[in-house]
Amino acid sequence: MKKKVLVVLFCLCALIPAVLFASGKSEATTAQTPAQDSVIEQPVDKNVSMKLTFLTHKQGLEEEFAKYQVEFNKIYPNVQVIYEPIGDYKKNIEIRWTSNNWGDMCMIPHMFISETQLPELFAPLGKVEEFEKKYEFASAFSIEGDVYGISSTGTAYGVLYNKKVLQQAGVTEIPKSPEAFFDALRKVKANTAAIPLYCNYGAGSRLADWEWNARGSLTADGNYKNKLVYMENPFSPGKPYYTVMKMLYDVVAQDLVEDDPATSNWDTCKNLLAQGKVAATVIGSWATVDTQKAAEDPSDIVFAAFPWNNNGKQYATIAADYAYAINKNISADRYQVARDYILFLTEKSGYSFTYGGIPIMKGEAYPQTLKALQDAGVTLVLDNPPHPQDIGLFDELNAESELYLGKYPQKARIVEAAMGQTKESFDSIMEDWNKRWTAAQISIIGKDYATKNRY
Questions:
Q1: Is there a contact between 343 and 351 (Cβ–Cβ < 8 Å)?
Q2: pLDDT of 120-154, one tens digit each?
Q3: What does UniProt give as the signal peptide span (predicted)?
Q4: How many angstroms separate the CA atoms of 439 and 441, rounded?
Q5: Tell me: domain 154-320+371-455, CATH 2.70.150.10, correct?
Q6: Strand duo 142-143 + 105-108: pairing
Q7: What's phi and psi for 142, nearest 5 deg?
Q8: In what order do the strands lie in the sheet with 79-85?
Q9: Domain locations along the chain
Q10: What is the pLDDT of residues 52-61, one digit of tens each?
């Protein structure tokens, strides 16, 4: 199977069948030694003195990073971790990775690179079979049983609301169906000065957040992504992707979004939502804490499941978020300290809980930011791993079709059509998606692709 992949394959654990809320500069890196081929834990002098560089997508967390430094120095008194925040991280981190000397540690964006690229860039951290005993999403950044990244937190996908704005508009309940959702947005437009929904077109990757809901949130099926590989015309009317993408199209076409989506961005969205100038945005649960911090009354900001239900029951797609990783070219003496720091972040820092994410340590309590999902009895759905013979197949189809599901260019195409910037209709776009997906299936799997569905 030839690899033409661009996005990371999520080899994750099985569908979670019940509600999961049961309980409540580069001097640091050298390439003078061979890359770490396996994890060999060796005793390290805790008084060793060194500086470690950590490239991060997080801006403005200097105080938090300083707290980590104080706590880690209780283990390694003479080790300093130097964080380097990088703007437009997903674009610029790829540029940094082209140099072996980019630093000691970094964050791997989720759904960003293929699993085959992991060992080309990063050092192994441990075995899936061991890590999955204590960590959620243990196999999300792995290949052939080796873990190359540990997720910093987990994300649920849905809608972030300012419930005070909804109340001012006369909306008394969080929408649980598309009809109720659009009715609520129209009431916001008619009865308030707020923007009903901020689509974040200018933010690019925020449009991709819509797509996540086309899987677990609509289907309650942890195998839906695997089934897409063999599914005939998955972007046709009545099917999940069509439904969710049509909602994106309609909310723009019906003028229920910001006046100039092309110039929109997440920071603006966050602040307007916090100030009650926006009622809702489709996004991951990670955004809840940031928005609450910017709000006068944090309780106004509520994260909820995507407006869909199956026989009255709601579901939410969940996935691993950005992952901690180590440069594969790190020297052996630095590797162990860097690994110890990553394990410290995972197990001791409290990052996931503090920032409202799904805990990585199994059995830990869920944060208050996810309480609305808990109260609504929402079931969280995780993508199942593919069968061994299917590893990489979704990514091949994604690249061959040039649809790049999980990224935003094709979603931007939908918004542009809805804005009247192109002459395409929504249905013509979906027909094109089906045509390209089918051609990729025939090219890679064969004309009998539909008969080979193992799910």
A1: no
A2: 999 999 999 999 999 999 989 998 899 999 999 99
A3: 1-22
A4: 5
A5: no
A6: unpaired
A7: -140, 165
A8: 79-85, 50-56, 105-108, 323-326, 150-151
A9: 26-153+321-360, 154-320+371-455
A10: 999 999 988 9
